[in-house]
Amino acid sequence: MPATKFIDAAGQSEPVTQNPIPDIPIYRGEVTAVIYVANYRGSVVSRESAKSGNNQVAHTSAQIDLATASFAVVPTHNGLLDDCSALENIERSLTGLAFDTREFRTKDAEDRLEEVGLLPGVRHVAPRSLNVEAAKRLAIARALCQPVEIVVVRALSETVNSESVRLIILMLRETATRRDIGVVVEVGGLVDADVADTVVILSETEVVLNGKPAELRASENPTVQQLLDSVPPHGRIDMSEFVLAG
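Above: the chain sequence. Below: its structure as tokens.
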């Protein structure tokens, strides 16, 4: 197997021999939400069926070859540079790419912040002064600075509430379609995954279930029902409050 290019949120890269995600089907232009379950003792989907994408899910886009794909990984705690502004975080991740002038790089960085839904007022704010959702969006913007085929967002539900998870996934769906890339988001339950294109439920590395969110919500499978109850409802947040007061 050829080495896979792995890029973290800070734009650092090194060849690795193991993909940073399980061996599941990932499609261009789609967001796949991955849910891990522990101590599962029920039936699993055959590996061949899961990899071929034939289990419950119809796709119209091309499947990405994980053996040759390049990845950008957004770590759980973002990996942002707290001594730099949001704009400088993006500019540093763009270092090494071809730009005619610094002004062009700055304009590109501003465009990338806008792409992930960060308002102009956030550009000169340090990450430590951002709320958790804005900081996660900034980390995603950094990961998107490099030309990769798959973006992996680690443990999204651990750091932001369910409403923010849904909003971020909706943003990533637009990004995946626009850039023709695959996105993998690790979440804590079906409440969080409800707006993804596809949901994959994993026990260790085995696929328990995969399908469209609406199909899984209608399922009578006990694992699915347990996951539906696993994430409590959260209040809605004010999307305009990207910057923490004080």
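Strands lie at 4-8, 13-16, 30-37, 71-74, 150-153, 182-187, 198-203, 206-211.
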